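Quick illustration, no need to memorize.
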Amino acid sequence: MTDRASRIAAQSAPLGDTRSAVGDARAPQRELVRGLGLWDATAIVAGSMIGSGVFIVSADIARQVHAPGWLLVVWMLTGLMTIVGALSYGELAAMKPQAGGQYVYLREAYGPLVGFLYGWTLFLVIQTGTIAAVAVAFAKFTAVILPFFDARFHIATLPISAQQILAIVVIAALTGVNCNGLHTGRWVQNVFTATKVGSLLVLIAFGLLVGRNAAAVRVNLQDFWGAPGVFSLSFLPVIGAAMVGALFSSDAWNNITFAAGEVRDPARTVPSSLAIGTVMVTALYLATNLVYLATLPLHGDPGATALSARGIQFATSDRVATAAMEVMLGQMGAVVMALGIMVSTFGCVNGLILSGARVYYAMARDGLFFKSTGFLNTRSVPAPALVLQGIWASVLTLSGTYSDLLDYVIFAALLFYALTVGAIFILRRRQPTAARPYRAIGYPLVPAGYIVLATLIMLDLLVMKPRYSWPGLLIVASGGPVFYWWRAARARDAYPA
Protein backbone atom coordinates (compact mmCIF):
# COMPACT_ATOMS: atom_id res chain seq x y z
CA MET A 1 0.00 0.00 0.00
CA THR A 2 1.37 3.44 -0.88
CA ASP A 3 1.85 6.07 1.82
CA ARG A 4 -0.90 8.15 0.26
CA ALA A 5 -3.33 5.24 0.15
CA SER A 6 -2.42 4.29 3.69
CA ARG A 7 -3.22 7.77 4.96
CA ILE A 8 -6.53 7.91 3.13
CA ALA A 9 -7.53 4.50 4.46
CA ALA A 10 -6.64 5.51 8.00
CA GLN A 11 -8.55 8.79 7.75
CA SER A 12 -11.67 7.07 6.49
CA ALA A 13 -11.54 4.33 9.14
CA PRO A 14 -14.42 4.25 11.62
CA LEU A 15 -13.92 5.31 15.20
CA GLY A 16 -13.77 1.72 16.32
CA ASP A 17 -10.68 1.10 14.19
CA THR A 18 -7.84 1.73 16.63
CA ARG A 19 -4.97 1.49 14.15
CA SER A 20 -2.69 4.51 14.24
CA ALA A 21 -4.33 7.32 12.28
CA VAL A 22 -1.29 7.68 10.07
CA GLY A 23 0.25 4.20 10.28
CA ASP A 24 0.23 1.45 7.70
CA ALA A 25 -1.21 -2.03 7.84
CA ARG A 26 1.93 -3.37 9.50
CA ALA A 27 1.63 -1.00 12.48
CA PRO A 28 0.73 -2.74 15.74
CA GLN A 29 -2.93 -2.39 16.60
CA ARG A 30 -3.83 -0.80 19.92
CA GLU A 31 -7.31 -0.84 21.30
CA LEU A 32 -9.11 1.01 24.03
CA VAL A 33 -9.38 -1.35 26.99
CA ARG A 34 -12.85 -2.02 28.37
CA GLY A 35 -11.71 -1.91 31.97
CA LEU A 36 -14.40 0.19 33.69
CA GLY A 37 -17.11 -1.60 35.67
CA LEU A 38 -20.26 -0.20 37.27
CA TRP A 39 -18.50 1.15 40.37
CA ASP A 40 -15.75 2.71 38.25
CA ALA A 41 -18.28 4.37 35.95
CA THR A 42 -20.37 5.62 38.88
CA ALA A 43 -17.22 7.01 40.49
CA ILE A 44 -16.53 9.00 37.32
CA VAL A 45 -20.10 10.37 37.29
CA ALA A 46 -20.18 11.34 40.97
CA GLY A 47 -16.51 12.27 41.24
CA SER A 48 -16.66 14.58 38.22
CA MET A 49 -19.82 16.28 39.55
CA ILE A 50 -18.63 16.95 43.11
CA GLY A 51 -15.93 19.59 42.92
CA SER A 52 -15.95 22.86 44.84
CA GLY A 53 -19.28 24.31 43.68
CA VAL A 54 -21.57 22.88 46.34
CA PHE A 55 -19.31 24.34 49.02
CA ILE A 56 -19.56 27.87 47.59
CA VAL A 57 -22.44 28.69 45.20
CA SER A 58 -25.25 28.59 47.76
CA ALA A 59 -24.15 32.06 48.89
CA ASP A 60 -24.82 33.56 45.46
CA ILE A 61 -28.10 31.65 45.13
CA ALA A 62 -29.19 32.94 48.54
CA ARG A 63 -28.45 36.52 47.50
CA GLN A 64 -30.73 36.10 44.51
CA VAL A 65 -33.73 34.24 45.99
CA HIS A 66 -33.67 35.73 49.54
CA ALA A 67 -35.48 32.79 51.17
CA PRO A 68 -34.46 29.39 52.57
CA GLY A 69 -37.32 27.59 50.83
CA TRP A 70 -36.34 28.93 47.43
CA LEU A 71 -32.71 28.03 48.02
CA LEU A 72 -33.83 24.42 48.40
CA VAL A 73 -36.20 24.69 45.42
CA VAL A 74 -33.32 25.82 43.19
CA TRP A 75 -31.25 22.80 44.21
CA MET A 76 -34.23 20.45 43.83
CA LEU A 77 -35.08 21.74 40.33
CA THR A 78 -31.44 21.46 39.35
CA GLY A 79 -31.28 17.92 40.68
CA LEU A 80 -34.47 16.91 38.88
CA MET A 81 -33.19 18.40 35.64
CA THR A 82 -29.84 16.64 36.04
CA ILE A 83 -31.44 13.25 36.72
CA VAL A 84 -33.85 13.56 33.78
CA GLY A 85 -31.00 14.55 31.48
CA ALA A 86 -28.88 11.63 32.68
CA LEU A 87 -31.71 9.13 32.22
CA SER A 88 -32.27 10.46 28.70
CA TYR A 89 -28.58 10.22 27.84
CA GLY A 90 -28.70 6.59 28.91
CA GLU A 91 -30.53 5.62 25.73
CA LEU A 92 -27.91 7.25 23.53
CA ALA A 93 -25.04 5.79 25.55
CA ALA A 94 -26.48 2.26 25.28
CA MET A 95 -27.13 2.73 21.59
CA LYS A 96 -23.68 4.11 20.71
CA PRO A 97 -21.14 2.96 23.33
CA GLN A 98 -18.15 4.63 21.67
CA ALA A 99 -15.30 6.83 22.81
CA GLY A 100 -16.42 10.45 22.53
CA GLY A 101 -19.91 10.02 23.95
CA GLN A 102 -21.86 13.25 23.59
CA TYR A 103 -19.75 14.32 20.62
CA VAL A 104 -20.76 11.10 18.83
CA TYR A 105 -24.46 11.55 19.63
CA LEU A 106 -24.48 15.10 18.26
CA ARG A 107 -22.52 14.07 15.17
CA GLU A 108 -24.90 11.21 14.40
CA ALA A 109 -28.06 13.26 14.95
CA TYR A 110 -27.14 16.65 13.50
CA GLY A 111 -24.05 16.06 11.37
CA PRO A 112 -20.32 16.59 11.84
CA LEU A 113 -20.52 20.39 12.16
CA VAL A 114 -22.63 20.34 15.32
CA GLY A 115 -20.52 17.54 16.76
CA PHE A 116 -17.37 19.54 16.08
CA LEU A 117 -18.81 22.72 17.61
CA TYR A 118 -19.43 20.79 20.80
CA GLY A 119 -15.97 19.22 20.83
CA TRP A 120 -14.35 22.55 20.00
CA THR A 121 -16.14 24.35 22.84
CA LEU A 122 -15.36 21.47 25.19
CA PHE A 123 -11.64 21.72 24.44
CA LEU A 124 -11.48 25.50 24.27
CA VAL A 125 -13.32 26.23 27.50
CA ILE A 126 -15.77 23.77 29.03
CA GLN A 127 -13.51 20.84 29.95
CA THR A 128 -10.14 22.58 30.12
CA GLY A 129 -11.55 25.67 31.82
CA THR A 130 -13.25 23.52 34.42
CA ILE A 131 -10.03 21.55 34.98
CA ALA A 132 -8.18 24.86 35.50
CA ALA A 133 -10.83 26.30 37.83
CA VAL A 134 -11.10 23.18 40.00
CA ALA A 135 -7.31 22.79 40.18
CA VAL A 136 -7.01 26.40 41.39
CA ALA A 137 -9.76 25.72 43.93
CA PHE A 138 -7.65 22.81 45.22
CA ALA A 139 -4.68 25.19 45.55
CA LYS A 140 -6.74 27.88 47.29
CA PHE A 141 -7.91 25.50 49.99
CA THR A 142 -4.40 24.09 50.31
CA ALA A 143 -3.39 27.64 51.27
CA VAL A 144 -5.75 27.47 54.26
CA ILE A 145 -3.51 24.75 55.69
CA LEU A 146 -0.19 25.82 54.12
CA PRO A 147 -0.18 29.65 53.97
CA PHE A 148 2.89 29.59 51.71
CA PHE A 149 0.54 29.06 48.78
CA ASP A 150 -0.85 32.56 49.28
CA ALA A 151 2.49 33.93 48.00
CA ARG A 152 2.71 35.89 44.75
CA PHE A 153 5.85 36.64 42.74
CA HIS A 154 7.14 37.20 39.20
CA ILE A 155 8.80 34.89 36.69
CA ALA A 156 10.55 37.28 34.31
CA THR A 157 7.80 39.90 33.86
CA LEU A 158 4.91 37.45 34.34
CA PRO A 159 3.04 37.82 37.64
CA ILE A 160 2.23 34.42 39.07
CA SER A 161 0.98 32.95 42.32
CA ALA A 162 2.02 29.85 44.20
CA GLN A 163 -1.57 28.68 43.82
CA GLN A 164 -1.30 28.77 40.03
CA ILE A 165 1.93 26.79 40.16
CA LEU A 166 0.37 24.19 42.47
CA ALA A 167 -2.68 23.95 40.19
CA ILE A 168 -0.42 23.29 37.19
CA VAL A 169 1.53 20.67 39.16
CA VAL A 170 -1.77 18.92 40.00
CA ILE A 171 -2.87 19.00 36.34
CA ALA A 172 0.51 17.66 35.19
CA ALA A 173 0.60 14.94 37.84
CA LEU A 174 -2.91 13.69 37.11
CA THR A 175 -2.28 13.85 33.37
CA GLY A 176 0.76 11.64 33.95
CA VAL A 177 -1.29 9.29 36.12
CA ASN A 178 -3.86 8.86 33.35
CA CYS A 179 -1.19 8.42 30.68
CA ASN A 180 0.02 5.45 32.73
CA GLY A 181 -3.11 3.51 31.84
CA LEU A 182 -6.82 3.24 32.52
CA HIS A 183 -6.27 1.08 35.59
CA THR A 184 -4.22 3.78 37.35
CA GLY A 185 -6.65 6.56 36.46
CA ARG A 186 -9.70 4.63 37.61
CA TRP A 187 -7.96 3.60 40.86
CA VAL A 188 -7.30 7.25 41.73
CA GLN A 189 -10.88 8.14 40.80
CA ASN A 190 -12.38 5.38 42.93
CA VAL A 191 -10.32 6.22 46.02
CA PHE A 192 -11.00 9.94 45.93
CA THR A 193 -14.69 9.59 45.06
CA ALA A 194 -15.23 7.17 47.95
CA THR A 195 -13.34 9.52 50.28
CA LYS A 196 -15.25 12.64 49.29
CA VAL A 197 -18.66 10.95 49.40
CA GLY A 198 -17.81 9.54 52.82
CA SER A 199 -16.66 12.97 54.02
CA LEU A 200 -19.90 14.59 52.82
CA LEU A 201 -21.94 11.93 54.62
CA VAL A 202 -20.04 12.64 57.85
CA LEU A 203 -20.55 16.40 57.42
CA ILE A 204 -24.27 15.91 56.80
CA ALA A 205 -24.77 13.54 59.73
CA PHE A 206 -22.80 15.74 62.11
CA GLY A 207 -24.48 18.94 60.94
CA LEU A 208 -28.04 17.65 61.16
CA LEU A 209 -27.71 15.55 64.31
CA VAL A 210 -25.11 17.34 66.45
CA GLY A 211 -24.11 20.73 65.10
CA ARG A 212 -27.51 22.38 64.69
CA ASN A 213 -27.78 26.04 65.61
CA ALA A 214 -31.23 26.50 67.18
CA ALA A 215 -31.24 30.26 66.54
CA ALA A 216 -30.43 29.82 62.83
CA VAL A 217 -33.09 27.11 62.43
CA ARG A 218 -35.72 29.32 64.07
CA VAL A 219 -34.94 32.35 61.89
CA ASN A 220 -34.88 30.32 58.69
CA LEU A 221 -38.22 28.63 59.46
CA GLN A 222 -39.86 31.96 60.29
CA ASP A 223 -38.89 33.42 56.90
CA PHE A 224 -38.93 30.16 54.93
CA TRP A 225 -40.62 31.51 51.77
CA GLY A 226 -39.67 35.17 52.07
CA ALA A 227 -41.85 38.19 51.44
CA PRO A 228 -45.55 37.86 50.48
CA GLY A 229 -46.19 37.69 46.76
CA VAL A 230 -43.01 35.74 46.07
CA PHE A 231 -45.07 33.09 44.25
CA SER A 232 -45.89 35.49 41.42
CA LEU A 233 -44.83 34.64 37.87
CA SER A 234 -42.44 37.58 37.93
CA PHE A 235 -40.25 35.60 40.34
CA LEU A 236 -39.71 32.71 37.90
CA PRO A 237 -36.92 34.47 35.94
CA VAL A 238 -35.09 34.98 39.23
CA ILE A 239 -35.28 31.24 39.91
CA GLY A 240 -33.96 30.48 36.42
CA ALA A 241 -31.01 32.83 36.82
CA ALA A 242 -30.27 31.48 40.30
CA MET A 243 -30.08 27.93 38.92
CA VAL A 244 -26.91 28.74 36.98
CA GLY A 245 -24.55 28.09 39.88
CA ALA A 246 -26.38 24.94 40.93
CA LEU A 247 -26.40 23.62 37.36
CA PHE A 248 -22.66 23.97 37.05
CA SER A 249 -22.14 22.42 40.48
CA SER A 250 -24.13 19.47 39.12
CA ASP A 251 -22.40 19.45 35.75
CA ALA A 252 -19.95 16.92 34.26
CA TRP A 253 -22.24 13.91 34.88
CA ASN A 254 -22.06 13.35 31.11
CA ASN A 255 -18.31 12.69 31.30
CA ILE A 256 -18.78 8.93 31.61
CA THR A 257 -20.25 8.92 28.08
CA PHE A 258 -16.90 10.24 26.79
CA ALA A 259 -15.21 7.08 28.07
CA ALA A 260 -17.97 4.67 27.00
CA GLY A 261 -15.51 2.89 24.71
CA GLU A 262 -13.68 1.69 27.84
CA VAL A 263 -16.69 0.50 29.84
CA ARG A 264 -17.50 -3.17 30.24
CA ASP A 265 -21.03 -4.07 29.07
CA PRO A 266 -21.65 -0.37 28.27
CA ALA A 267 -25.28 -0.88 27.23
CA ARG A 268 -26.11 -1.67 30.86
CA THR A 269 -23.28 -0.07 32.79
CA VAL A 270 -23.34 3.49 31.41
CA PRO A 271 -27.11 4.11 31.88
CA SER A 272 -26.96 2.55 35.36
CA SER A 273 -23.98 4.66 36.39
CA LEU A 274 -25.67 7.83 35.12
CA ALA A 275 -28.78 7.08 37.15
CA ILE A 276 -27.00 6.02 40.35
CA GLY A 277 -24.43 8.81 40.23
CA THR A 278 -26.81 11.71 39.57
CA VAL A 279 -29.40 10.56 42.13
CA MET A 280 -26.69 10.09 44.78
CA VAL A 281 -25.09 13.49 44.17
CA THR A 282 -28.45 15.28 44.06
CA ALA A 283 -29.36 13.78 47.44
CA LEU A 284 -25.97 14.78 48.87
CA TYR A 285 -26.33 18.35 47.58
CA LEU A 286 -29.80 18.77 49.08
CA ALA A 287 -28.68 17.36 52.42
CA THR A 288 -25.59 19.62 52.42
CA ASN A 289 -27.79 22.68 51.94
CA LEU A 290 -30.00 21.53 54.80
CA VAL A 291 -26.83 21.54 56.94
CA TYR A 292 -26.12 25.11 55.87
CA LEU A 293 -29.64 26.14 56.89
CA ALA A 294 -29.33 24.23 60.17
CA THR A 295 -26.16 26.07 61.16
CA LEU A 296 -26.40 29.53 59.57
CA PRO A 297 -29.22 32.01 58.95
CA LEU A 298 -29.82 32.64 55.27
CA HIS A 299 -29.90 36.43 55.61
CA GLY A 300 -26.81 38.32 56.70
CA ASP A 301 -24.91 41.57 56.85
CA PRO A 302 -21.91 41.87 54.47
CA GLY A 303 -20.16 44.20 56.91
CA ALA A 304 -20.47 41.91 59.94
CA THR A 305 -17.52 40.00 61.38
CA ALA A 306 -19.36 37.18 63.19
CA LEU A 307 -20.13 34.13 61.06
CA SER A 308 -23.77 33.96 62.13
CA ALA A 309 -24.24 37.66 61.40
CA ARG A 310 -22.87 37.29 57.85
CA GLY A 311 -25.23 34.39 57.21
CA ILE A 312 -25.24 32.21 54.11
CA GLN A 313 -25.67 35.21 51.81
CA PHE A 314 -22.41 36.86 52.82
CA ALA A 315 -20.22 34.03 54.02
CA THR A 316 -16.58 35.12 53.70
CA SER A 317 -15.47 34.64 50.08
CA ASP A 318 -18.76 32.74 49.61
CA ARG A 319 -17.24 29.76 51.49
CA VAL A 320 -20.53 28.64 53.03
CA ALA A 321 -19.31 25.15 53.91
CA THR A 322 -16.30 26.55 55.75
CA ALA A 323 -18.52 28.96 57.70
CA ALA A 324 -20.88 26.13 58.66
CA MET A 325 -17.97 23.97 59.88
CA GLU A 326 -16.54 26.87 61.89
CA VAL A 327 -19.90 27.30 63.62
CA MET A 328 -19.87 23.59 64.52
CA LEU A 329 -16.19 23.04 65.33
CA GLY A 330 -14.61 26.45 65.76
CA GLN A 331 -11.36 27.30 63.97
CA MET A 332 -10.56 23.62 63.52
CA GLY A 333 -13.66 23.40 61.34
CA ALA A 334 -12.01 25.57 58.67
CA VAL A 335 -9.05 23.16 58.48
CA VAL A 336 -11.31 20.10 58.36
CA MET A 337 -13.39 21.65 55.59
CA ALA A 338 -10.29 22.68 53.65
CA LEU A 339 -9.04 19.08 53.74
CA GLY A 340 -12.43 17.82 52.58
CA ILE A 341 -12.55 20.25 49.67
CA MET A 342 -8.97 19.38 48.69
CA VAL A 343 -9.98 15.71 48.43
CA SER A 344 -13.11 16.67 46.51
CA THR A 345 -11.38 18.91 43.98
CA PHE A 346 -8.45 16.55 43.45
CA GLY A 347 -10.80 13.70 42.56
CA CYS A 348 -12.86 15.99 40.36
CA VAL A 349 -9.81 17.10 38.35
CA ASN A 350 -8.83 13.46 37.82
CA GLY A 351 -12.27 12.55 36.48
CA LEU A 352 -12.32 15.52 34.12
CA ILE A 353 -8.84 14.75 32.80
CA LEU A 354 -9.57 11.05 32.31
CA SER A 355 -12.80 11.54 30.37
CA GLY A 356 -12.22 14.74 28.39
CA ALA A 357 -9.30 13.38 26.35
CA ARG A 358 -11.55 10.68 24.89
CA VAL A 359 -13.56 13.32 23.03
CA TYR A 360 -10.49 14.78 21.30
CA TYR A 361 -9.39 11.23 20.47
CA ALA A 362 -12.77 10.57 18.80
CA MET A 363 -12.60 13.87 16.89
CA ALA A 364 -9.11 13.06 15.65
CA ARG A 365 -10.34 9.68 14.42
CA ASP A 366 -12.85 11.66 12.34
CA GLY A 367 -10.07 13.89 11.00
CA LEU A 368 -11.46 16.90 12.87
CA PHE A 369 -8.74 17.47 15.45
CA PHE A 370 -4.96 17.33 15.68
CA LYS A 371 -3.84 14.12 14.02
CA SER A 372 -1.59 13.04 16.91
CA THR A 373 -4.50 13.03 19.38
CA GLY A 374 -5.90 10.02 17.51
CA PHE A 375 -3.06 7.81 18.78
CA LEU A 376 -3.10 5.43 21.74
CA ASN A 377 0.11 4.86 23.69
CA THR A 378 1.48 1.48 24.75
CA ARG A 379 -0.88 1.60 27.75
CA SER A 380 -3.86 1.84 25.37
CA VAL A 381 -4.88 5.35 26.43
CA PRO A 382 -4.96 8.52 24.27
CA ALA A 383 -1.80 10.03 25.78
CA PRO A 384 -1.31 12.79 23.15
CA ALA A 385 -4.88 13.98 23.75
CA LEU A 386 -4.30 13.89 27.51
CA VAL A 387 -1.09 15.92 27.20
CA LEU A 388 -2.62 18.51 24.87
CA GLN A 389 -5.58 18.90 27.21
CA GLY A 390 -3.22 19.35 30.17
CA ILE A 391 -1.16 21.98 28.35
CA TRP A 392 -4.19 24.06 27.40
CA ALA A 393 -5.71 23.76 30.88
CA SER A 394 -2.40 24.99 32.31
CA VAL A 395 -2.38 27.96 29.93
CA LEU A 396 -5.88 28.87 31.12
CA THR A 397 -4.66 28.52 34.71
CA LEU A 398 -1.86 31.02 34.07
CA SER A 399 -4.13 33.38 32.15
CA GLY A 400 -6.46 33.73 35.11
CA THR A 401 -9.41 34.07 32.70
CA TYR A 402 -10.86 30.58 33.12
CA SER A 403 -13.61 31.70 35.53
CA ASP A 404 -14.80 34.36 33.07
CA LEU A 405 -14.74 31.86 30.21
CA LEU A 406 -16.77 29.37 32.23
CA ASP A 407 -19.38 32.06 32.87
CA TYR A 408 -19.57 32.66 29.14
CA VAL A 409 -20.34 29.02 28.29
CA ILE A 410 -23.24 28.60 30.72
CA PHE A 411 -25.65 29.21 27.86
CA ALA A 412 -23.66 27.05 25.43
CA ALA A 413 -23.55 24.08 27.79
CA LEU A 414 -27.32 24.16 28.23
CA LEU A 415 -27.73 24.44 24.47
CA PHE A 416 -25.68 21.29 23.85
CA TYR A 417 -27.50 19.40 26.61
CA ALA A 418 -30.86 20.26 25.05
CA LEU A 419 -29.63 19.32 21.57
CA THR A 420 -28.32 16.00 22.85
CA VAL A 421 -31.63 15.07 24.48
CA GLY A 422 -33.29 16.13 21.23
CA ALA A 423 -31.07 13.62 19.46
CA ILE A 424 -33.19 10.85 21.01
CA PHE A 425 -36.19 11.98 18.94
CA ILE A 426 -34.13 12.37 15.76
CA LEU A 427 -32.39 8.99 16.01
CA ARG A 428 -35.61 7.14 16.86
CA ARG A 429 -37.08 8.46 13.63
CA ARG A 430 -33.94 8.11 11.52
CA GLN A 431 -32.74 4.76 12.91
CA PRO A 432 -35.92 2.99 14.07
CA THR A 433 -34.43 -0.51 13.87
CA ALA A 434 -31.19 0.28 15.74
CA ALA A 435 -30.58 -1.72 18.91
CA ARG A 436 -31.71 0.17 22.01
CA PRO A 437 -30.85 -1.94 25.05
CA TYR A 438 -32.05 0.90 27.25
CA ARG A 439 -34.83 3.37 26.42
CA ALA A 440 -35.27 6.82 27.93
CA ILE A 441 -37.74 6.73 30.84
CA GLY A 442 -41.01 8.53 30.15
CA TYR A 443 -40.35 9.03 26.43
CA PRO A 444 -41.51 11.29 24.83
CA LEU A 445 -42.87 13.47 27.66
CA VAL A 446 -39.92 13.38 30.07
CA PRO A 447 -37.18 14.14 27.50
CA ALA A 448 -39.43 16.79 25.92
CA GLY A 449 -39.94 18.34 29.35
CA TYR A 450 -36.17 18.56 29.80
CA ILE A 451 -35.80 20.34 26.45
CA VAL A 452 -38.58 22.79 27.33
CA LEU A 453 -37.10 23.59 30.74
CA ALA A 454 -33.57 23.99 29.33
CA THR A 455 -34.94 26.27 26.60
CA LEU A 456 -36.79 28.42 29.13
CA ILE A 457 -33.63 28.79 31.23
CA MET A 458 -31.63 29.74 28.11
CA LEU A 459 -34.19 32.39 27.17
CA ASP A 460 -34.12 33.61 30.76
CA LEU A 461 -30.32 33.90 30.64
CA LEU A 462 -30.44 35.86 27.39
CA VAL A 463 -32.54 38.45 29.23
CA MET A 464 -31.24 38.25 32.80
CA LYS A 465 -27.52 37.65 32.10
CA PRO A 466 -26.78 38.86 28.57
CA ARG A 467 -23.20 39.66 29.56
CA TYR A 468 -22.51 35.93 29.78
CA SER A 469 -24.96 34.27 27.36
CA TRP A 470 -24.12 36.19 24.17
CA PRO A 471 -20.32 35.79 24.48
CA GLY A 472 -20.96 32.09 25.08
CA LEU A 473 -22.69 31.86 21.73
CA LEU A 474 -19.73 33.61 20.10
CA ILE A 475 -17.33 31.04 21.57
CA VAL A 476 -19.41 28.24 20.06
CA ALA A 477 -19.73 30.06 16.73
CA SER A 478 -15.95 30.52 16.55
CA GLY A 479 -15.71 26.82 15.83
CA GLY A 480 -17.58 27.18 12.51
CA PRO A 481 -14.70 28.61 10.46
CA VAL A 482 -12.29 26.21 12.18
CA PHE A 483 -14.46 23.24 11.16
CA TYR A 484 -14.52 24.20 7.48
CA TRP A 485 -10.78 24.96 7.49
CA TRP A 486 -10.04 21.62 9.15
CA ARG A 487 -12.26 19.72 6.73
CA ALA A 488 -10.61 21.42 3.76
CA ALA A 489 -7.16 20.66 5.18
CA ARG A 490 -8.13 17.04 5.64
CA ALA A 491 -9.27 16.83 2.02
CA ARG A 492 -5.78 18.01 1.05
CA ASP A 493 -4.29 15.50 3.52
CA ALA A 494 -2.74 18.45 5.32
CA TYR A 495 -4.58 18.81 8.61
CA PRO A 496 -2.25 19.56 11.54
CA ALA A 497 -0.29 16.89 13.35
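DSSP finds 21 helices and two strands in the chain.
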